[in-house]
Design goal:
alpha+beta; 14 strands
Length: 489
Amino acid sequence: MADRRTGPVRSARRRATAAVRRLTAGPRTAALIARLAPRSVRTRTTLAACAGVAAVLLVASAGVLLLLRADLVRSVEAGGREQARVVSSLAADGRLPNPVPLDHGSDFVQVTDARGTVVAASGNLAGRPALTPAETSDGHGTFDLDVLGDEHHQRVTTLTTDTPNGPVTVRVGASLHTADTAEDVTTAALALLGGLLVATVGAVTWKATGRALRPVEVIRSEVAAIGGRALDRRVPEPGSDDEIARLARTMNAMLDRLESAGARQRRFIADASHELRSPLAVLRTQLEVAHTHPDPAVRAEMVAGALQDTDRLQSLAADLLLLARLDVTGRSGPTEDVDLAELVRGTAGGRDSRPHHVELDLAAGCTAAGNPMWLGRLLTNLLDNAQRHARGTVTVRLAFDAAAGQAVVDVTNDGPAIDAGDREKVFERFTRLDDARSRDDGGTGLGLSIARDIAALHGGTLTIEDAPVGCTFRVRLPARQAPRTGTGH
């Protein structure tokens, strides 16, 4: 019983194993082909060039051989046809000799009557029975005939003519040995020349590809040697203006951006550490004094100062997080159509009018695609900066530049003007130009940098423009305007 059960089980196992082998044969074959396939661009290019040249040579050689064969066969047929006409003319005149003399290029001649009896033949067919070609086309038959001691490939021309003794059939055989030999010699020569040509193309392609790819290997080696602390290194740029030179220039441009980003990050970390160190030290001092001082009034004053520094630290931390998010994401987040007039009106209206009132001059109907929260933060930072440094008034003007397809937002304050040489410095992180923009004014030194980054993420710009009094921060954003416009305050 055990043996009876074991037999079917073993058979099922064998069938399952065979099925698994069939299923895995395809992937294994594909994996083997992939493993054997050349991975070098140089090798693949050389093989492709050799294969292309070989294919072209094969087709061209086949055409040459066909044309050569056809021309040689036509020459043989012409000679045999001329011999057959001469013999037919002699037979028609009753002057047919026996044996029949052979012309140059003819191998044999045989003349038979209507009953198939040989009436005349060339000397090499004397005593031979009548020939019967295996196949005949247009008066010509091709077959192997062992009449001269060796096997010859013959082209037989057949003509029928009337004689005084009745109709006769003339067969003239012309050997294709010369044509076959010429074809064989030509085939061997083409094969040899083709092989040499393919080898030459392969060698030239291998060397040319290696020379062309040498700069790529140099670029690869240089990039591999560039680490996080060696971003000042650059890849060599070839003197040519080809794809590799453009690749090198693009790589160096990328390295420039990486070096700039690294320097900016290190400067940002150093500045952030410096900015955090002072308020933390002051906060610690205030808390230590409040903790140990016996006078409740002094303790209350110290705690109030600590709360102020805590608020400033919270603001600084929020700005740092926002800058990090802007640097990492590189995009403005979810976008929607934002009515800029309503955004400016809502942002200004939600602010305390102290210490300086904000006047509005808004063109209605300007709509920009963007993140309303971040655009609001841009306006808030500009208004904070303007109110911090204004002497009397802050003006926000919104207009539409139809020629550029942009909305123009000007935030102007009548405070101290900014020199032309310092107008880019104010957008650097933690930059304060003078005592008027000191740490006592409550700024973190990040607001304008954040505002410019937000404008750039929305495809716009933030610059400082000349103003009759004070300075103007101008924001340009891609926008569109409704057909009807108006002015609101």
